[in-house]
Amino acid sequence: MSAAQRVRVAVVGAGAFAQSHLAAYAHIDRAEVAWVCDPDLEAARRTAERWGVRSVAADLEDVLADDGVDLVDLVTPVALHAPQATSALTAGRSVLCEKPMALDLAEAEAVAAVAASARGELHVKFHQRFDPVHERVRDLLRDGTGAVVAHFTLLGDHLAALRSRTHWRGDPRFTGGGSLFESGSHLLDLAHFWFGPATRVTATVHQLVADNPAKGEDTATVVVEFDGGVVLTLVGFWAAPAWDWRKDVFTADQVQLTVETGRDNVLRRRARDGASEVVAVQEGWFDRSVEASIRHVVECCAGDATPLVTVEDALDSMRTLDAAYTSAREGRTVEVA
């Protein structure tokens, strides 16, 4: 594909996250969104009208019949990721898939096997890797003495959705699990980005507040041991009064790096002598990192870049997630395969 050509995109899904993706494409000159696809055709039409997209469909097969589509962007429930990605890859298209890439590790490995022999590429959107503050932490750890201990806190309010008998969130049939699968998967992938491959996982998951047996966990605790010696603890709770994500990393020379995540991402560095400084700030980090990750995928589709998040990276995160649920279910520490 020459530098003058555009990447034609089909966005599959017309919900809230699809709007986030479409907002990103609106700032990427190289991308042309040609289709919006959703089983709710009226929702697809409303979304297409909002973003100036010409074609709509209720069925992915109608989109794949358009030979001009280069990239299929899956912003759909997790239960649809594997079958939809398989269809698009088999049809010779590249795929951008929201995380997690499948309902479980077996599904993820099956999709990866299809991608290995496909003409198009499979990309999984772990957009937190593309945030400059998170990149700065990676660089500081790589250039310094490295991390030894980390603690991630994931607090959020999805209690109403968990208690709902009709809302999809937290329903393992559609999303794979609760707070750990949906939100924790982001932070486990970020941990891989910073610390490398995982070796052992010990975890517990509980539903302490939601009181809805049809839904997954509202509370999770995970201890991950990494090949390089780092030990991470992650605590997630989906019944907090507000959203608050915090990542603390401690190094062998007694430096503390803290990322405070709200509307902005703020990185603070605290030294052994107590001196503290703000090292980096990214305003509006969520939208900016989503756009950066999608822009990178478009460049990959155009042949101008190689994937910064590989299929193997996505599988590593799925293996750690799978090990956590196995550990919680069986009450033991699990070796990561």
UniProtKB/TrEMBL annotation:
<dbReference type="GO" id="GO:0000166">
    <property type="term" value="F:nucleotide binding"/>
</dbReference>
<dbReference type="Pfam" id="PF01408">
    <property type="entry name" value="GFO_IDH_MocA"/>
</dbReference>
<dbReference type="Pfam" id="PF02894">
    <property type="entry name" value="GFO_IDH_MocA_C"/>
</dbReference>
<keyword id="KW-0560">Oxidoreductase</keyword>
<dbReference type="InterPro" id="IPR051317">
    <property type="entry name" value="Gfo/Idh/MocA_oxidoreduct"/>
</dbReference>
<dbReference type="InterPro" id="IPR004104">
    <property type="entry name" value="Gfo/Idh/MocA-like_OxRdtase_C"/>
</dbReference>
<protein>
    <submittedName>
        <fullName>Oxidoreductase domain protein</fullName>
    </submittedName>
</protein>
<feature type="domain" description="Gfo/Idh/MocA-like oxidoreductase N-terminal">
    <location>
        <begin position="7"/>
        <end position="125"/>
    </location>
</feature>
<dbReference type="InterPro" id="IPR036291">
    <property type="entry name" value="NAD(P)-bd_dom_sf"/>
</dbReference>
<dbReference type="Pfam" id="PF22725">
    <property type="entry name" value="GFO_IDH_MocA_C3"/>
</dbReference>
<dbReference type="InterPro" id="IPR055170">
    <property type="entry name" value="GFO_IDH_MocA-like_dom"/>
</dbReference>
<feature type="domain" description="Gfo/Idh/MocA-like oxidoreductase C-terminal">
    <location>
        <begin position="277"/>
        <end position="336"/>
    </location>
</feature>
<dbReference type="InterPro" id="IPR000683">
    <property type="entry name" value="Gfo/Idh/MocA-like_OxRdtase_N"/>
</dbReference>
<comment type="similarity">
    <text>Belongs to the Gfo/Idh/MocA family.</text>
</comment>
<feature type="domain" description="GFO/IDH/MocA-like oxidoreductase">
    <location>
        <begin position="135"/>
        <end position="244"/>
    </location>
</feature>
<keyword id="KW-0520">NAD</keyword>
<dbReference type="GO" id="GO:0016491">
    <property type="term" value="F:oxidoreductase activity"/>
</dbReference>
